[in-house]
Amino acid sequence: QVQLVQSGAEVKKPGASVKLSCKASGYTFSTYYMHWVRQAPGQGLEWMGMINPSGDTTTYPQKLQGRVTMTRDTSTRTLYMELSSLRSEDTAVYYCARDQGSGWLDYWGQGTLVTVSS
Amino acid sequence: DIVMTQSPDSLAVSLGERATINCKSSQSVLYSSNNKNYLTWYQQKPGQPPKVLIYWASTRESGVPDRFSGSGSGTDFTLTISSLQTEDVAIYYCQQYYDGRTFGQGTKVEIK
Q1: pLDDT at position B21, please?
Q2: Which backbone phi and psi does B73 adopt, to 5 degrees?
Q3: For residues A73-91, average pLDDT
Q4: Contact at 8 Å (CB) between B2 and B99?
Q5: Closest Cα of chain B to A61: distance in Å?
Q6: pLDDT of amino acid B42
Q7: Residue B87 has what pLDDT?
């Protein structure tokens, strides 16, 4: 069965960077787009961007351009997301998710809480 | 960017009654070449990631109860729960996949 297992919770200071991971199993990792979505406490879902199957093309919303970097390692079936220049507003649960192939997100990781606090 | 706006922000419905959630996009998400609406609906329960209910605006995901239905085209869409059950208490999000991805702000559904 498809599984996306994310790395553990992080606590970071403002201005620092965080790199999260998401390990995939149960399907052919190298043939699916992958996404990151975050959710601030008590708030809605925010799309953070996506990476193509080969890992050579990324798409980010303008709001996060320059601060977010998504990569993937096919050999270890792992997706990564690095967010830099952290501020308190980046405190959120971060989810990785698989793109079904036509655009919706059909499998999600369990989420990773990132807390940004001085 | 395509902005997705849901209404209402929350609603309380009696058990067995109908719940209706609306979603409006700032531009059409209907792709003319295949006549498909690039719109999906998710359900999120506390402490869980979202779960797909509906894609292509009106196609129910496998395993989703048939009391959930989606309709609409272009810029205006609706998710209907025909007979609300206790397990349907959740937050519901629409999301477009026509250009990048954007989510609506969510609609919280509760029991009256």
Answers
A1: 98
A2: -160, 155
A3: 98
A4: yes
A5: 8
A6: 98
A7: 98
